[in-house]
Amino acid sequence: MTTGSLGTLRTTVDLAFGAPSGSPRGVYEATWGQREMWRTIARHRPGGFYQLSQIIPVGAPCGLDTALGCLRQLVVRHASLRTTFQEDAGGLYQVIHREGVLRVLVQEAPGEGRERATAAALVAAFQEEEPLLEREFAPRLAVVTRGGAAAYLVLVCSHVVLDGHSERVLAAEAGALLAHATAAPGREGERPAPLPPVVHGPAEQAAAEARARSRRTSARSVAHWRATLADAPPPLFPSPAEPVAGAPIWCGRLASGALAEAEAVLVRSGLGSSALWLSAVARVLAARTGHPAMTFRLPVGNRFDQALDGYVGNLSQHTVVTVDTASGTFPELARRVERDLMRAYFHARYDPAELAEATRDIEARRGAPLDLTCLFNDVRSRGAKRPSTTRPPARAPEVSWELLHSANSDIKLHVRVTESAGHPLLDIAADTSCLPRSAITDALFAVERLLVGAAREAAPGTARS
Fold first, then answer.
1. pLDDT at 1
2. Which of 21, 57, 214, 273 keeps 20 to 30 A from 427, CA to CA?
């Protein structure tokens, strides 16, 4: 069914799908990742919907039917894309459907070279609307066309059913499906793609989490949280005694050739990549705030088992680590942080109900709410965490800005390491009532100076100033 006609600028197509008869169908316990994100969204409503997005280039030109056929195959392959939810007094449940319909927006780019910008505008529009997961499937899908030929696929999906790794799996599979379809003559969109069968979906994940082994994993993770938070230092940014109106959250991003080279030098000297970034940021924040120790919450993808590499679902949960900058040289601090990070990363699989009970108990013992408003996240993939061996360009350091939220959430500080062309980028996003934009800029350049100086000491003459 189509709303409008293919000759107009914008069209909506109903994409009907049907999964094989042997695939999971029905009501299952929600997974730990689904339950945790469901409660996070409920706590922040209406402030944030936590949706992830991918803009996928089509590559070789293909017709709209071929692009829609590839989207249909993704939905059929992965039960997370055809799941709704129901909640009652007994908890949250996932409802997996074998058949259904997803609406796909087809948008003609307004001019040559505008295809990518059109896709980005569709992402922004989808992000403004919260999916009603009790009765709607999570994906928001679109195809951007130029002259009637598909140019980009757009996927926006709730974090309840996907994590960042799943996004990348879907993008890679869409690329493989498109390449296969455009290389095959005839009925391209209907031909099976050379993708391995899906053997682990959200129903299987929920069953695995109910087993004794997973219960032991949850208990160990909750014990780590208890041990870390029982002695947690005071908040880095204390909350005001009286509520205040939300301040904007600005993100400053530093791109610097010297910073990229410094990371490569320090990693070659034996320091862990994520640890050196977290250590440097902690040192800079300690100098600014006067608090030598601080606790960070860290999102963890939980893909340590290679059997889960192709799983499309939400495995992401959190762990905690305290960084104490009071003693030692920078390399000594980074080695301590590396040790603590490795321990923390393996304690991020837990039943959210068990963790909630533990945090309530800790807060009762401390006599004050826990402050977990500082996040650190190295979002680079496992393969990208080894710094590029290519010497980065001798570019001047540059800070770019993005307004993330118009009002406060429960995040006061979010430090992110990402990458471009194999070289690292440092993001510091902050509630500007805690760190104004000028302080974010100062912190970014202070991290650069610290890492460049440490690299110069580790290998004199190798790191640019």
1. 40
2. 57
Q: Are 127 and 53 in contact (CB under 8 A)?
A: yes
In single-letter form, the type of residue at position 114 comes to R
Cα angle 278-282-288, degrees, rounded to a multiple of 5: 150
pLDDT digits (tens, 9 = 90+) for 420-456: 888 899 999 998 888 999 999 999 999 999 999 999 9
Tokens of 417: 């390491």
3-state SS, one letter per residue, for 197-222: CCCCCHHHHHHHHCCHHHHHHHHHHH
Mean pLDDT (whole number) for 202-219: 97
Percent helix, strand and coil across the chain, each to the nearest 5: 40, 25, 35
Is 345 exposed, middle or buried, given 0-12, 13-18 or 19+ CB atoms closer than 10 A? middle
Q: How far apart are the first and last CA of the chain?
A: 61
Tell me the CA distances in angstroms from 293 to 124, 281, 284, 325, 342, one per residue in order.
Answer: 38, 12, 11, 6, 19
Q: Which residues, 6 or more positions from 231, have their beta carbon under 8 angstroms from its beta carbon? A: 322
Asked whether the beta carbons of 129 and 158 are under 8 A apart, the reply is no
| CA quadruple 444, 449, 450, 452: dihedral, nearest 10 | 120
- Overall size of the chain counted in residues: 465
Q: pTM higher than 0.85 for the full model?
A: yes
